[in-house]
Amino acid sequence: MKNIGIIGGVVLGTALLFGTMNACKDKPKAEDPQEVAEEKNEAISEEAAAIVNDSQYLVDAAATDLTEIKIGELAQQKGVSAEVKKFGKMLAEEHKLSIAEVQDLAASKNINLPSVISEEGMNAFNELNEKSGAYFDKKFAEMMVNGHKKAINQARKATEDAKDDEVRNWATGKIVTLSGHLAEAEELKEKVDDSNN
Fold first, then answer.
1. Are 121 and 67 in contact (CB under 8 A)?
2. Helix H or strand E encompassing 125
3. Which of 32, 50, 82, 108 sits in a 20 to 30 Å window from 142, CA-based?
């Protein structure tokens, strides 16, 4: 009987050990908020399937806004030139307005959006945050030119492909705003490049 109790204790202890190990091993990796929003939108009912592409554009626009806000705030802290700090302030303010707009539009269409910065956005932020001094200003200006070109292309695609009139009209308005940002970013890049030569 004594041996049975010892064996039972060993079996129970082993089971607990393996159970704990499996629980640790199966701990899920934190999901990317942009991907979570995309998956929720893909699961919408069939009658709403026509807005899947529209939802993708709004998810991308929100992800861009969240990234630009964080990077704009970083530029205000770490920027060397007054122009970089000023552009960073404008960027954060404008994209806070934009995220509020896209959230309202998405809510009216029952579309899910990311509420925090995506992995891609965080990687861009971290890459910029590693720079300092004149290197920071140069990298920031370069990111702003490339990022705004990409955002304009996404908006143009939405103006052609969006099924929903409100989404299409919103994207059209974004092209105007983003084009203004791009022109300022290109001017900033020229100034920063000239000051480093």
1. yes
2. helix 119-129
3. 32
Which residue ranges make up each domain of the chain?
1-30, 34-195
Distance of CA 159 to the CA centre of its chain: 21
Contact 182, 152 (CB under 8 A): yes
Helix (H, G, I), strand (E, B) or coil at 120: helix
Task: Write the single-letter amino acid at 123.
Answer: N
Token pair 């060397």 is found at 80
Q: Quote the tokens at residue 134.
A: 């004149």
Task: Give dist(CA 91, CA 171) in Å, integer.
Answer: 18
CATH architecture of structural domain 34-195: Up-down Bundle (1.20)
pTM of the complete model: 0.74
